[in-house]
Design goal:
Keywords: Membrane, Transmembrane, Transmembrane helix. With 427 residues, the chain is of the alpha/beta class. It has 2 domains: 179 residues, no CATH class; 217 residues, Rossmann fold, CATH 3.40.50. The chain is built from 11 helices and 15 strands. It is globular, with a radius of gyration of 22 Å. The two termini are 35 Å apart.
Length: 427
């Protein structure tokens, strides 16, 4: 069966500022007065700062669907070709305001002249894909641990704000007392972390896939704002405590994007940091100032305006504008500058073409602390889609590195050097 779609409408991209705001800024500049320009610049800086720390409850569905064809195993979806949909691998397509979720397979046909991409429909977890006109592209693949064939239990982790839901996925064989704690990124949910269950299971680790404040599942803070890692780590600390209370002797933190910043903060600030055996970070934020500068440039925001937005986030007097209960300490989260202070073995998996969190700071961190940091470099994966582009390599890198880190420690004086050199993707 095939159903043609109506002509696509233009929508703002997920990271772009709305046209109405650029009209406001242009009006101020057009007036030609210093006060009007200053007012427009200040308003833009305020908007930029608020957007960074405000969770998006409604995700933009800007990926167009042209047709859904066939039935059963032969079902296909024809999408508009975009920088994301033309990258090979398995992905998810969310539609109907997030109520619908389909898993899509590798590219079957790409016609640049027509601007279309055809992919197989591997699974339809919820909703009616036949009725979808547009949706949201995502590196998330699975909807729950059950989609991977894993037994799991819905549990609650008690945090200082109240109970936060988590998935507890027991090891297939009880070979390790180390648990994996999976921490998703900004604007994502626990589903993002499910890819990490595959290597964790291979290593015999029990996994706890957690939620944290303001992510839509866990309790919200009074200000309902992201702390960019400086507040969320407390919920990860609670998850570590849960693991220790239920049989773990130590943990490995897996973090995606902002989940990387959260994991680094937990390893730095938590009273339970001595139980964090290692960090596995996918496209992590290791320097928020660099990320914000990149986002300002990407959104065509003048450099001075972007810096003012950072200032609003970092100083107490900016709280009335940003809505934050407390300012963000960017220096404390600058792990490039603090590289030598990172004493937890860390694996970073990052694509050089990451369009949201630049690759450069990850490379600098690895270069400045090769004793502790191993960098696995990917290509063509964009943001947090390293697994999607090359799942076998991603899983192999994690398993081999963690197996070495988690191996029984040598006796005093024997000294086994750590592997610190990453490899280059051949994608």
């Amino acid at each position: 069966m095939s159903r043609a779609r109506s002509a696509p409408q233009q929508h703002e991209s997920d990271g772009a500022l709305p046209r109405s705001f650029w009209a406001l800024l242009g009006a101020g500049v057009g007036l030609g007065t210093a006060s009007a320009v200053a007012a427009s610049s200040s308003a833009l800086a305020a908007y930029f700062a608020r957007r960074i720390v405000t969770p998006e409850r409604v995700r933009v569905e800007d990926q167009e669907v042209f047709a859904v064809q066939g039935t059963g195993a032969g079902r296909r979806i024809i999408l508009k070709a975009t920088p994301e949909t033309v990258v090979d691998g398995e992905y998810s397509f969310f539609f109907d305001a997030g109520a619908g979720h389909a898993r899509l397979g590798p590219i079957e046909d790409y016609v640049p002249g027509e601007g279309t991409v055809t992919r197989p429909v591997v699974a339809e977890y919820s909703g009616d894909l036949e009725r979808a006109v547009r949706g949201r592209w995502s590196g998330v693949v699975y909807s729950s641990p059950q989609d991977l064939g894993y037994d799991f239990e819905d549990v609650l982790v008690e945090t200082e704000l109240g109970p936060a839901p988590a998935w507890l996925v027991p090891a297939s064989h009880d070979t390790s007392k180390t648990w994996a704690v999976m921490v998703h990124g900004r604007g994502a949910t626990r589903q993002e972390s499910l890819r990490g269950l595959i290597p964790a299971r291979q290593l015999g680790l029990t996994s706890l896939v957690v939620s944290y404040r303001n992510d839509g599942d866990a309790p919200a803070t009074a200000d309902r704002r992201y702390g960019l890692g400086m507040t969320e780590w407390r919920d990860v600390e609670s998850a570590i405590g849960y693991a220790l209370e239920n049989g773990a002797t130590d943990v490995v933190l897996f973090g995606w994007s902002m989940g990387g910043a959260i994991s680094l903060a937990a390893a730095d600030l938590s009273s339970l940091r001595q139980y964090i055996r290692a960090l596995v970070l996918d496209a992590p934020v290791v320097d928020w100032v660099d990320v914000l500068a990149h986002q300002a440039q990407k959104n065509r925001i003048p450099r001075g305006v972007g810096r003012l937005g950072q200032l609003l986030l970092a100083h107490p007097w900016g709280r009335r504008i940003t809505g934050l209960a407390a300012p963000v300490d960017f220096r404390a989260m600058d792990w490039v500058a603090r590289a030598v202070e990172l004493r937890t073995p860390t694996l970073i998996l990052h694509s050089v073409d990451d369009e949201f969190v630049p690759f450069g700071p990850s490379a600098l961190l690895a270069g400045r602390n090769p004793e502790m940091v191993t960098l696995e470099t990917f290509r063509k994966a964009r943001h947090t889609k390293e697994w999607n582009v090359d799942p076998e390599r991603w899983e192999r890198a994690v398993v081999s590195w963690l197996a070495e880190i988690l191996a029984p420690r040598p006796s005093p004086g024997s000294g086994t050097p750590r592997r610190s050199a990453g490899s280059e993707s051949r994608n």
